[in-house]
Structures are given as C-alpha cells and as structure tokens.
C-alpha cells in the first residue's frame, strides 16, 4: 500500500556543534552481536513523513492525523501485520548522495509523483542546484535546499516485499555530526554512501573526511550491519568502471575491519547511481554495467538479517523528544520489551509513575509496540515540562538505573592539539539520547588491546594505572556527570551502554560502560 500524502513529523533537534575530524581505528572491542530488530510490526503503508518546510528544530507540532482526528483513526491490530520493521540510517561524507538516494527510493516506491519531481527540478534550477532535485525529496527545509546540505535527520518510510523501513537521512557535513549521532543511534542497519567520483571518494576517506568518522560512530552506536553503496557510478569520471569500484572496495575493507565490523558477515558492497536510480529497485541493466551480477539495493535491504530482539525483555525507551497533544507524548525507539496500552511504567531517572494511554507508529494508532519500533507514546501522570530528552521510559520491575558516575572502557581517537587525556579532562558525553557534560575523574587502568585483556573485575593483576594516556590508547576510567543519567552496562544492554565523547565538536573517544554503582546508589562508594 502506498501513499503520496505528506504528514508532518518532527526533525530531530540538536544544536549543531562545529565538528572536525577523527581518524579512529577502534579494535574489535566495539563489536557486539546483540544488536537486533523486531519482527513484530503492526502497520503497513509507506508514508513520506517529513517536517515539510520546517526550518527550525522545534518540538514536533501535533499533526492533524495524530491529533484532532484521532478518534477517526483505525486502531491497527497486531495480528494484521507480519512484515518486520527496520530503521536504516544513511551515512557518509558530505555530498556523497545520501539524500539523493533516499529521495530516489521514495520515487521508485511510488511515493513521489512526476509533478512533484518537476516542481523540485524547477525549484532546484532556480537555486542553481539543478542536480539536487532528487535530494529535495528528503531535504525539506529552505536552508537545506539553498545550501544543498542536509541539516536535520530526514525521515521517510518505504517497504520492500518482507520489510517496512524507516529511512533516517543523516547529514554528512562535519558541523552536524551530533544530528548524525542522533539518527544512527536509532538505526539497526546503515547504508554507507560513498561517492565514486574522482577526488570525492578520496576526500571523504582521508583524515578529516566523514566517511571514517561516520563508520566508527555507527559501529559504536549499534548499527549492526552496513550496506556500502558505491554511488555516482554514472558520473563522467567513473562511467561504471570496475577498476574504480574495486579500488574503493579494496580501500574500505581494511578500514571497516579496523572499525569493528566483520566484513564477511556484516557488510555488503554494491554499485548504484542514486541520481539515475540504477541498481536500486531493479537489478542492474547489463547495457549500463556488464560486470555487476549481484543484487540491487532493495533486494539487499529486504534480505538483510538482523538478530531478533526479545519482546519480553524489560521496557527501555530512551526519549528523544516530547510534546503536548491532549496529553504528554514522548517519542523514541523502543530498544527492548513491549509497550501496551494501559501499562504502568516509570519515566526514569525520576521514577515518575506513568500510564500508557496511547501508542502510535508512524502516525497510526496501535495497541502495542514491540522492540526496535519508533514509537510515540501518550502518557498520563506526567507533565511535558517534567520530561527531558535523555530520560528513559522503563518498566517498573527491573527498571533502568540512574547514576552520576560510571566506569567505562574508552578508546581515545584523536585529542585536540596538545591536549592530554588525564583526570580532570572534560568532554560532552553522548549516550543514547543523552547529551551531558562530563568529567574524567580517574584513570583506572590502561588496557593492552594486543593481549585483548578485556576488563575483568576479578582479574588478579590489574593493568598499569596511568597518569595520562595518548591517542589510540584504550583505558578504563571513571566518568562523572552533574545530572542523573540512565545507563546500563554494555554487557547487559549494549544500546544503553555505549557512548561517544566529544570536545569542541570533535569525537575524541568512543566507549562502553563497564561498571555502574550498586543498585540504590548513584555513585560508587569512595
Ligand atoms: P549532505 O546531506 O550534505 O551530506 O549530502 P548528501 O550525501 O545528502 O548528498 P546529496 O544527495 O545532497 O547530493 C549531493 C550532490 O551529488 C548533488 O549534486 C547530487 O545530484 C549529486 N549526486 C548524488 N547522487 C548522484 C549520482 O548517483 N550520480 C551523480 N552523477 N550525481 C549524484
Ligand atoms: Mg543529504
């Protein structure tokens, strides 16, 4: 079932920070196989869902559909739908063609009619951005269209034979890495878009390019599988050259391995032209490219295997945004468990007792939502002002912990000029939807990754306790924040236990939570 109506959905809001680069080469430790998806899904329908022309990142306006005409909506029963649902984030260097590919997907799946495309062609031409018309499907605000750069994470939906997808179109520009982090943290799989155009692959891949930073962040944030699309294969400097394709794949493989991806199991490469729509919905036309015998993008997406999540696990939904609409609505990705109408839950860290009075998936009301769904949950028992992004909707029994300090294993990527990483180092912590100032208060142990000595509290001989560490080091340290944050040990709950540290807009470290204070305490005892 396809629609071509547009509904308004909020862009994700983060104040853009000036970002620079990193050149991270995390080892296997960022890997985990616990990332997964839901097979449960309760609605169908491909609906282009944009913040139509929304220029700022204000909290979501209630849409007509979600709001006043609520009663007219059909409540979709869980038994009706068998298609699985996956969130797919489009990542990669600026101008690689992420929005163009996303727009093309919507066009190929029949959600954008020719008239709209013609309108975008004209608008793009008027802005002297002729070739951007496909990207205009995803880039909906004026600033994005003028500059030809995505700022907010664009959202849209489409379906293949077996799967419903939510596309999250991340910005590639280094200034908007925090927005990219927000998009990637909601995704199960990623489409890494790489431009094959002469010079463009090189700029994206070299130090300072976002290809590297995005891959590393995606891995840290839980993007379990990557589809690497080598894009712009139609471009005059490429002309579907197999040599160019092989060159890029050859350079990407070792880098992806060093970022923690198991290339054989978790990564798939394919050539496309996002602008022309080649090798996307249908297999490669041999008259365009004779050497590609592999699948097209829709096939790869449709068949991608992602481990199942446990729908019976405890409820964990990091809150990304909230608004008022005849009640308090919170939005986020349900990382674990199932939410049903009528459930009593906690909003953590304040242990606010709330009741679920409505659930919607992509503007459709449902009675329950399973893990990996992007949901909007209407709550009673709490005011919108009492909720902040980063709070977690949690089951009452076995609720998520809230702490002001934790121990983490950190991999230092690249510190700012002359900085040393030592006790007293301050940075911005990004962990699920939390963004919080933090301070490193103690370096506990430097880890020798060659020996792969993962941190074992029972280990008799601890590693060396360093005074400071340098770029590339892996170190266990204690981190403090001023406000209570809801986190989990990575080994218990990877989605709520991995994070990045950023300083002055640059990712300086990636890490995982290895220990938290005992239940009932917010701090470790002295
Ligand atoms: P950011 O959002 O700023 O990170 O960029 P993006 O990755 O979304 O790139 P976008 O889709 O805006 O495209 C950038 C430019 O590349 C536009 O001029 C597109 O027309 C062009 N482009 C994208 N895909 C293709 C392609 O397959 N072939 C050719 N020839 N050009 C492409
Ligand atoms: Mg874009």
UniProtKB/TrEMBL annotation:
One of its GO terms (molecular function) is GTP binding. Keywords: GTP-binding, Methylation, Nucleotide-binding. Residues 1-73 are annotated as: Disordered. Residues 83-308 form the Tr-type G domain. The keyword GTP-binding applies. InterPro entries: EFTu-like_2 (IPR004161), G_TR_CS (IPR031157), GTP-eEF1A_C (IPR054696), P-loop_NTPase (IPR027417), T_Tr_GTP-bd_dom (IPR000795), TRAFAC_GTPase_members (IPR050100), Transl_B-barrel_sf (IPR009000), Transl_elong_EF1A/Init_IF2_C (IPR009001). Pfam families: GTP-eEF1A_C (PF22594), GTP_EFTU (PF00009), GTP_EFTU_D2 (PF03144). Residues 46-66 have a biased composition (Low complexity). Transmembrane segments: none annotated. It comes from the Eukaryota. Belongs to the TRAFAC class translation factor GTPase superfamily. Classic translation factor GTPase family. EF-Tu/EF-1A subfamily. This protein promotes the GTP-dependent binding of aminoacyl-tRNA to the A-site of ribosomes during protein biosynthesis. This is Tr-type G domain-containing protein. It comes from Brachypodium distachyon (Purple false brome). The gene is LOC100841181.
